[in-house]
Automatic annotation (TrEMBL):
<comment type="similarity">
    <text>Belongs to the peptidase S33 family.</text>
</comment>
<feature type="domain" description="Peptidase S33 tripeptidyl aminopeptidase-like C-terminal">
    <location>
        <begin position="393"/>
        <end position="492"/>
    </location>
</feature>
<keyword id="KW-0031">Aminopeptidase</keyword>
<dbReference type="InterPro" id="IPR000073">
    <property type="entry name" value="AB_hydrolase_1"/>
</dbReference>
<dbReference type="InterPro" id="IPR051601">
    <property type="entry name" value="Serine_prot/Carboxylest_S33"/>
</dbReference>
<dbReference type="GO" id="GO:0004177">
    <property type="term" value="F:aminopeptidase activity"/>
</dbReference>
<keyword id="KW-0645">Protease</keyword>
<keyword id="KW-0378">Hydrolase</keyword>
<keyword id="KW-0732">Signal</keyword>
<dbReference type="InterPro" id="IPR029058">
    <property type="entry name" value="AB_hydrolase_fold"/>
</dbReference>
<dbReference type="Pfam" id="PF08386">
    <property type="entry name" value="Abhydrolase_4"/>
</dbReference>
<feature type="signal peptide">
    <location>
        <begin position="1"/>
        <end position="25"/>
    </location>
</feature>
<dbReference type="Pfam" id="PF00561">
    <property type="entry name" value="Abhydrolase_1"/>
</dbReference>
<dbReference type="InterPro" id="IPR013595">
    <property type="entry name" value="Pept_S33_TAP-like_C"/>
</dbReference>
<protein>
    <submittedName>
        <fullName>Tripeptidyl aminopeptidase</fullName>
        <ecNumber>3.4.14.-</ecNumber>
    </submittedName>
</protein>
<feature type="domain" description="AB hydrolase-1">
    <location>
        <begin position="100"/>
        <end position="248"/>
    </location>
</feature>
Length: 501
């Protein structure tokens, strides 16, 4: 351990050091013409009425932004933000904005939850800013009339299952158009524009940023739309910026099949507890058989459906973190017991699944479908599903499935092509099941002034977390505290003690 700490210190000393910027009395907010009233508004800071935020000492406010930036004199939205003030006002150097991913993830609490991972130096220097992106949470959420728990399903095993998914996708898209003007203006580009209004309102020439998963895409789009307005940017579990909308899921098939194999090895070691099989191969057979059995005996209770369309999504929700190995095993054990005629606690099962992926269906649909036009022909998706069944039997029918985006109105803008010279620190785990490792490599390629930190031999989504890799955490905290990027890309390893037995 001492050896890699010394190596890290050496690499950072000879690395790239960025100039330290302090808060300026004249922020030079750079308000675009016609948007001055939004950039110059006064905020009314109040208690957040949220246990996590209130315990962290946060205050909350609403930032008014245009619904449609092409028509700033029209309707407006109020975006909810939280602020945890820098621990040492004398050392304060700026603001750190954030996004937890999704899309569809509320973010007011995000940096409060990360406060324990940041070093005292980082906490001293930054106001930590959480946001609920437009259309999500407290930011005048999009509410689709069809109350589906998710917009994502596995396609099932036959044309009848696929027909069900096409019908649900079309119905969800139609139900989201009750307020069509709002729905069509929920997009990554507009959320990035909201970020710049927040920067200006808070009186900063530049912003610092920490984004996870989809939040890395949002951060990269901001660097493209607002060159020169970012300082220190960390992108954890990065998305390929050339993907977007419905394409975000296509790479998830192979990496989740590999993740399932990894989890199966753990489950085999715990066969006495869960009875899925004594080898990884036996566990996989059990899981695939469970999905087939669920197709013949679907269960609907407490607003939740268990069938061949949803069991793969349960797996997807919990494969992203080895700490959830036991939760996944318990969820699958509950499904197996129900299929055997035993009673299950559906509320407890829902809590495990929803706790792993706390996303809002309506907001996710609006952002994904508002970012990039999707193919309209259902036959196109069906062909892709059938082409991967042999190699991706559990997750291919999800990754290639039709979604509401096939029935969504065309987006008002094209997606953003990210190619710029912004500096950034990119973190990527080799076994990430949500954003595959090559996606982080692609983000690094598109931001050539970035550095890529690889977390080796780890099935996890989100690498900056307590106890997982001191190597990763030290690099991130050093960068936020000093502006120093490593001189070259680095590979870190996880702490073996972090993983469940």
């Amino acid at each position: 351990m001492v050896r890699w700490v010394r190596l890290l210190a050496l690499v950072l000393v000879v690395g790239v050091t960025l100039p330290v910027r302090t808060a300026l009395a004249d922020p030079g907010d750079g308000a675009p013409a016609g948007l001055e009233r939004f950039y110059h508004q006064q905020l009314d800071w109040k208690p957040c009425d949220d246990t996590v935020l209130d315990q962290a000492g946060a205050r909350c406010a609403g930032v008014v932004v245009p619904l449609d930036y092409a028509h700033p004199d029209g309707r407006t939205l109020t975006v909810g933000i939280s602020r945890i003030a820098a621990a040492d006002p004398a050392r304060r150097r700026g603001i750190m904005l954030s996004n937890p991913g999704g899309p569809g993830g509320p973010g007011l609490r995000m940096l409060a939850n990360f406060a324990a991972v940041f070093s005292p130096e980082v906490r001293a220097e930054y106001d930590l800013i959480g946001t609920d992106p437009r259309g999500i949470g407290r930011s005048e959420r999009v509410d689709c009339a069809l109350p589906l728990p998710t917009m994502l399903f596995a396609a099932g095993f036959d044309i009848f299952g696929y027909a069900r998914d096409t019908t649900l996708a079309a119905a969800l898209a139609a139900s989201c158009q009750v307020d069509a003007e709002k729905a069509r203006n929920i997009s990554t580009r507009n959320t990035a524009r909201d970020m710049d209004v927040i920067r200006g309102v808070l009186g900063q020439r530049t912003l610092n940023y920490f984004g996870v998963s989809y939040g890395t895409y949002l951060g990269s789009v901001y660097t493209q739309l607002f060159p020169g307005r970012t300082d220190r940017v960390v992108l954890d579990s990065a998305v390929d910026p050339d993907l977007g909308g419905f394409e975000l899921f296509h790479a998830m098939g192979p990496v989740n099949e590999a993740g399932l194999d990894d989890w199966a090895m753990w489950a085999a070691r715990h066969d006495a507890d869960y009875h899925f099989g004594g080898t990884a191969a036996q566990v996989r057979v059990t899981v695939e058989d469970l999905i087939h059995r669920a197709a013949g005996h679907p269960l609907y209770a407490d607003g939740y459906l268990i069938d061949e369309h949803t069991v793969p999504m349960m797996l997807l929700a919990m494969l992203s973190n080895p700490k959830l190995n036991a939760d996944l095993a318990e969820a699958l054990r509950a499904v197996a017991d129900e299929l055997a005629g035993l009673p299950i606690d559906m509320g407890r099962l829902k809590a495990k699944i929803n706790g792993a992926v706390p996303l809002e269906t309506s907001g996710m649909a609006a952002v994904l479908c508002g970012d990039k036009a999707a193919p309209r022909d259902p036959a196109w998706y069906l062909f892709n599903i059938e082409s991967v069944r042999a190699t991706e039997p559990v997750f291919g029918p999800f990754a290639q499935n039709i979604t509401a985006c096939a029935y969504w109105p065309d987006p008002p803008e094209p997606p953003t092509r990210v190619r710029n010279q912004a500096t950034a620190l990119i973190l990527q785990a080799t076994g990430d099941t949500r954003t595959a490792y090559p996606e982080g490599v692609a983000m690094h390629r598109d931001l050539p002034n970035s550095r890529l930190i690889t977390l080796a031999d780890t099935r996890v989504h989100g690498t900056f977390r307590n106890g997982l890799s001191p190597c990763v955490n030290d690099i991130v905290n050093m960068y936020f505290a000093t502006g120093t990027l490593p001189a070259a890309d680095l590979t870190c390893r996880p702490d073996p003690a972090w993983f469940p037995a």
